[in-house]
Design goal:
mainly beta; Immunoglobulin-like; 3 domains; six-stranded antiparallel sheet
C-alpha cells in the first residue's frame, strides 16, 4: 500500500503516444495525357486510414476510393483533380491541375470519277474525322495555289480541261484550333475518241468491163450529224472532191441518236472509171473515230476495196482500234 502511494506521490505516469497528421499527395500517368486517353491517379499519401477522390472538379471527394483510380477526358483543357485522406480525426486534401491535350483532326477525301478524263466534272468529298470533337471548318485548294479558297463545305467540284497530273488539297479545322491537310494527285487522262452510235456503211455497185468500170451507184449510210467527203482521182472522175452532211431529224425536230441518212453520189452514177482511178470516202464527226473506204479501179476485175479508220481531227487512214 505504501509503494503505490509513493508512486502516485512522486508523479510517475504511464507514457502516451501522439499520432502524426495525415498528408495527402498523388501522382498521375501519363503526365501529359491526350483526350480519350486513360489516366491513372495513384495516391502517395501518408498517415491516413481512408482516402477518396474528386475526379469531376466539384470539390467533393465522392468519385472513387482506394489507392488508385482511373479517368479519361473527352475534351481538351485543364481539369482539377483532388484527393482527400483522413485518419478518423484529422483530414488532408491535395489538388492538382491535369492538362489534357487535343488530338488533331484527320484530313482525308475521295473523288469521283476515280479515273477522270479531260473535261469531266470531278467531285471531291471530305472523309475527314476528329477523334475528340467536331470539325468546324473545311477548305479546298483545287487550283494548287496554296490557298484553301476554292470551296468551304463537305464537297467541292472542278473540271480539268487538259490531261495531266493535278494536286488537290483539303484543310480541316477542329474546335480547338488544330488543323490537318490531306493531299492527292489526280491523274486526268486524255478523253478517248467516241465511236459512231450507228456504224457507217459504204457500198459501190459497178459493172466491170474489159477496159473500164461503170459505176452504177455509190451510197453511204452516214450517222446523224456526220460529214461525208468523197474524192475521185484518175481518168473518168467527174470531180475531185465533194462533201455532204448527214442530218436526220425526228418529227419533233430533234436529232435521232441512232439514225442514219443514205447519201447517194449521183455524179458518179454511170460514169466509166478507167483502171488506176481511185475513189475515197471519208465519214467523220467531231471527237469520233471516223470511217475511211477506198476503191481502186482495176482492169477486168472488181474494184479493190480497203477499209480503215480515221482518228478525230485527222484525214489519214489508220488501222481500226480493237472494239
Amino acid at each position: 500500500m505504501l509503494a503505490f502511494v509513493t508512486a502516485i506521490g512522486l508523479g510517475l505516469l504511464a507514457p502516451s503516444f501522439v499520432r502524426a497528421a495525415p498528408v495527402a499527395s498523388f501522382t498521375f500517368s501519363p503526365a501529359s495525357p491526350l483526350t480519350g486517353e486513360d489516366v491513372t491517379f495513384t495516391s502517395t499519401s501518408t498517415g491516413y486510414t481512408s482516402q477518396s477522390w474528386d475526379l469531376d472538379g466539384d470539390g467533393e471527394c465522392n468519385d472513387g476510393t482506394g489507392p488508385s483510380v482511373h479517368r479519361s477526358f473527352n475534351i481538351a483543357g485543364a481539369y482539377s483533380v483532388g484527393l482527400c485522406v483522413t485518419d478518423g480525426v484529422n483530414r488532408a486534401t491535395s489538388t492538382q491541375q491535369v492538362t489534357v491535350r487535343n488530338r488533331p483532326p484527320i484530313a482525308d477525301f475521295s473523288y469521283a470519277p476515280a479515273a477522270p478524263f479531260a473535261g469531266d466534272t470531278i467531285v471531291f468529298t471530305s472523309k475527314a474525322t476528329d477523334p475528340d470533337g467536331p470539325i468546324v471548318g473545311l477548305g479546298w485548294d483545287l487550283d494548287n495555289d496554296g490557298a484553301f479558297d476554292d470551296g468551304g463545305g463537305g464537297s467541292a467540284s472542278t473540271v480539268f480541261s487538259a490531261p495531266g497530273a493535278y494536286t488537290v488539297r483539303l484543310q480541316v479545322l477542329d474546335r480547338d484550333g488544330a488543323t490537318a491537310v490531306a493531299t492527292a494527285t489526280v491523274v486526268v487522262a486524255k478523253r478517248p475518241p467516241k465511236v459512231f452510235a450507228f456504224s457507217p456503211t459504204v457500198q459501190m455497185i459497178a459493172t466491170v468491163g474489159r477496159t473500164a468500170t461503170r459505176v452504177r451507184t455509190l451510197s453511204i449510210d452516214a450517222p446523224d450529224g456526220s460529214r461525208v467527203s468523197v474524192s475521185c482521182f484518175g481518168r473518168g472522175c467527174p470531180f475531185r472532191r465533194l462533201t455532204r452532211s448527214a442530218g436526220v431529224r425526228s418529227p419533233s425536230g430533234r436529232p435521232h441518236a441512232h439514225a442514219a441518212r443514205r447519201i447517194r453520189i449521183q455524179r458518179l452514177r454511170r460514169r466509166l472509171l478507167r483502171p488506176g482511178a481511185i475513189v475515197k470516202v471519208r465519214v467523220s464527226q467531231a471527237n469520233t473515230i471516223g470511217k475511211f473506204t477506198r476503191f481502186r479501179i482495176r482492169r477486168g476485175k472488181v474494184p479493190r476495196r480497203t477499209d480503215r479508220c480515221l482518228m478525230p481531227g485527222s484525214t489519214r487512214p489508220v488501222q481500226c482500234p480493237p472494239p
